[in-house]
Each structure stands twice: as C-alpha cells, then as structure tokens.
Amino acid sequence: MPEFAVWAPVPKLVRLDVDGQLHDMTAGDDGWWRADVDCAPDARYGFVLDDDPAVLPDPRSARQPDGVHERSQRWDASAVQCSDQQWSGRSIEGAVIYELHTGTFTAEGTFDAAIDKLDYLVGLGVDFVELMPVNAFNGTHGWGYDGVLWYAVHEPYGGPDGLVRLVRACHRRGLGVLIDAVFNHFGPSGNYLPKFGPYLSAVSNPWGEGVNLAGPDADEVRRYIIECALRWMRDFHIDGLRLDAVHALVDNTAIHILEEIATETAALSAVLGRPLSLIAESDLNDPRLITPRDRGGYGLTAQWDDDIHHAIHTAVSGERQGYYADFGSMATLASTLQNGYFHAGTYSSFRHRRHGRPLDTSLIPATRLMAYTTDHDQVGNRALGDRPSQYLDFGQLAVKAALALGSPYTAMLFMGEEWGSSHPFQFFSSHPEPELAIATAEGRKAEFANHGWDADDVPDPQDPQTFLRSKLDWDELGDGEHARLLAFYRGLIALRDTEPDMADPWLGHLVVDYDEDERWIVMRRGRVAIACNLGEQTVDVPVSGEVLLQWGNPTVGSGGTSGSVLPGHSVLVTLTGANG
C-alpha cells in the first residue's frame, strides 16, 4: 500500500485527497504528515489544509498533467526502465555543451521532437545537451525560470516519461544530459509552498522572494532542494545540473548549501558508478565555487564565466553598454583568456566597487570555467532578443567561435549559433492570469526603457508571436553562409578531440599575443596557433605552419617576416613548432 507524505508544519490539519476521496493523515513531531492509502499507480491526489477546501498539489509532485494549480499524479520512477546500462557517463570538464530550450528547439517543442535532432548534434561533435529548466511552471510556454513545482516535469514538453525517453536516446548516442535547475526563487503563479511550510525567506532577489536556507526550519527546506537535485540524477539518469544564479542563494550557515549539494552529489556518483557534474551560474567571480572541498572550496565541477563572454563579445562587436563598459580592448581580451577572470579584485565601473578574486591557475584548471560566445541570457535579456548573428557578419561569428572553442576552457554553444541562426531568442511567457500578464509585459518595457531602449520596440512576452519568432528555423542549415559557418564549427570542435595540445587544461601553458591597434590576437596552445583578425583591415600576423582550419581566405607564409596575412574578420589555425 503506497504511503503519502508531506512536510507541512504550518497548518493544524492536513488531509489527503485521492481521486476525490478524503483521507485522514497522521502528524509527526517533525512536521511531516503521513497516510497509507490503497490506490491506482496513476491516481490523482493532493492535500487539503485546515478548513480551506482547495486541493493543493504535492510540493514533491512528480507529475502535473493538468497544470500547477491542479492535483498531482502518482509517477513511480522505479518502474521506469531507462535502458542505458551501457552508458558509463563522463565529466563535463573539457567537453562541448549544447544549451537548448525544449520549446523552441523544434517546431513541436517537445522532448520527443528533440530526439529527432540528436543525430545532428552527434554530427556537430558536442558531448552534452543542456536543457533549460524543464520543471513545472504555469502556462504552456516560457523560459522555465518561474517554476513552482521543482520535482515535476513540464507537461507540454512531454512530462516525466518524455524526459526519460530523451535521456535514454541521448545516452544511446553517447551524449550526456544536463538540466538547468533553479533553486533561488519560485515563480509567481502556483506557488503554494508557503501554505505548507516556511519555504521563503525575508530576503528577496530580482526574481522574487528568496528561499529559506538559514532561518527557522531551514533544514527541511534545504533537504527539499538537495533531494530535488539528487532526484534528477538518480531517477532520470541526468549527468549533472546547471545551478541557476547561485549568487542569489543567501546562506550564512557554516556549510553552504552549494557545498552540501556537491558533497551529496559526489556520494551519489560513487553509488551510481558514473561521473556527475555541477555547474554554477555566478556573477561573483569567486574561485571558492570550483575550488576542491579539501582546499576550502565548495567543490563544484565548473562555473559559467561571463567575463570570457564579455571580453570576446565586446572585442568583436564593439558594444560597450551596461556591464560591457570595462571590456572591449585586446589587452582585456588577452588578460581574460589567460587568467579566467578579468575582474579579480579589480574595480568594476558597472558595480561601482571592486569585484571578484584572482583564480589560482596552478590549482584550478581552465576546464572548470566555461567559455561561450553567447547563451540564453546574453541573447534573451537584450531588449529585442537579437542574436549576434543578427548584427555581426559571418566572419565576426567565426572569430568569436574560434576564441571560445579554441580556448582551454570547457565550451558551450547556444542552440542555433553554430549556423548563425537568423531568428531571435526573445523573452516569452504565457501567464494565464491577466494581471500577471500585464505586469510582466509592462515590467519588461520599463526595465529596458531605464537602459535607454525604446519601450515600444520591446516585444510583448505574452504575445504568442514572441514565442513563435524564437523557434529555430532548421531549413537555414543548408543555406550558403549558414552551412559554411556550421562546417567551421564542426572543424573547431573536431580539433579539440584530434589535436593533443588542445586538451591541455592549464592556463599557465597558454600563450597569447595581440596587437591593440591592428586588432589581431593569437592563442598558442603548444603546437597549435589560433590567429584571429578582429578588425576590418588586412594584417600581418606572426603565425605560419600547416593549415588546420581557416575562415576568410588568409594567405599563409606570405607576410614577410610576420608569417601570414589575414583579411578582415578572418581566422587561421595552424600546426607549428612548439609555441610557434
């Protein structure tokens, strides 16, 4: 007979509703209520608190077939056969990760439709698929960062069974799977957890009320988070998590929640016999996140590195607004590539204070930081949601790709960037509540108006066309420059696997030369030299050797004593003698 249990220290009375029938529950001294009720494996159920007749979903619900406001449905993870016993897993360090949004990756916007594109991803050469949040949120479509039932899988994507099918299909093809997990706030619609217990704290963040990590009864809230994290990896065979905005996790206890998650993930990894990875999104530039626990750190596997993105993007695009203000020079680009962080205890004009801390490059390999030319935030959080491919030429896109994929860092692509997708990735939502829909649209316009954008140009997140515009157009793959850029990406990714020097993870071995005025830069990784001309004028670059890959028809060995001639917005990758 199945047991139903819920942590609910707030109400005086909790009853269980199973398929419309009420059952008494027994309260424990620990705030947990329990009841054993015979029912079907797919029974619908929920909880009734005190005298309120509303049936609320289970905070640990695995499935919400009718949405986040309705009854939960039983789903037995142990009954699911993932059929991936041959998958031994791998760490994300040094890998190439492909970030995608399930709803816009394909026309259908489902897990099953994504399976049809996996052979393409294998051919591209990526190692992992990273899914933007798939936990349950209100509405049919959205980015997923307003989830309210963290244990459930968004039903329009295919629910938990669809996710299992996608993971199984990835593993059969040798692809790992990562999930973007949001533990720093809850969404605005369907969050009934405060009725059950003290899940929220008095500290808010830009997206809502914070989570109670250090206040009274925080131990059970922390277990709620930790068990959710472990569940993705244990029950769904996920290979790791990207932890959203960890700087918004306010925790002043002696053992930070991130360290606790990392410790228990390592223990689960030992039990399962395969690597499990944790990736932090953080704007703190704090090495403690990726420093081993035995050296006083939290022991996470890797961290998104926005400094690398900013340094590459500004140097290529010329943009300097907002948080790009301190970036843009070739010197800044070179420094960031060689040191991981640009702001490392240095003054940030955007923050009006010192920011970051130096990375010990003798202790922490470059593979614990992630390099990317763009991501969902760097596109979607622009007023128009325009990709770099919508305002840069293909040569500039190739330069950005060479700098990110040619670096020693773990690399990440955002879906469609590899062929220069012409479609934007805009911020979209589908809140059913009219007042929330209006507030979201008006808030979005006001936010960008404060940054100098014309509010009338900001797409309405609630307009269905905003969502539809953001879907990839796969027909572009075979078109001229799109196909050429895709081939270039495939070549760069292949070099990471075929050239031994490209696997060296230590920044101390990376040599970077540049010319500020002529706008060229060279990364030397052992015998491999990656030369990029970021400017519009033809330049001589001190690189020669066997050509491994190129963009823009550079002329090798004809630059006199300099080595080679690179036209504007071009790339040359050669195999030379050690360090040149």
Automatic annotation (TrEMBL):
It catalyses: hydrolysis of (1->4)-alpha-D-glucosidic linkage in 4-alpha-D-[(1->4)-alpha-D-glucanosyl]n trehalose to yield trehalose and (1->4)-alpha-D-glucan. Residues 99-444 form the Glycosyl hydrolase family 13 catalytic domain. Residues 60-74 have a biased composition (Basic and acidic residues). It is an enzyme of class 3 (hydrolase). Keywords: Carbohydrate metabolism, Cytoplasm, Glycosidase, Hydrolase. Its main location: cytoplasm. GO terms for biological process: trehalose biosynthetic process. The active site is at D244 (nucleophile), E281 (proton donor). GO terms for molecular function: 4-alpha-D-(1->4)-alpha-D-glucanotrehalose trehalohydrolase activity. Residues 56-75 are annotated as: Disordered. Substrate binds at residues 242-247, 306-310, 376-381. The record marks D377 as: Transition state stabilizer. InterPro entries: DUF3459, GH, GH13_cat_dom, Ig-like_fold, Ig_E-set, Trehalose_TreZ, Trehalose_TreZ_E-set_sf. Its EC number is 3.2.1.141. GO terms for cellular component: cytoplasm. Pathway: Glycan biosynthesis; trehalose biosynthesis. Belongs to the glycosyl hydrolase 13 family. PANTHER family: 1,4-ALPHA-GLUCAN-BRANCHING ENZYME (PTHR43651), MALTO-OLIGOSYLTREHALOSE TREHALOHYDROLASE (PTHR43651:SF11). This is Malto-oligosyltrehalose trehalohydrolase. It comes from Mycolicibacterium sarraceniae.
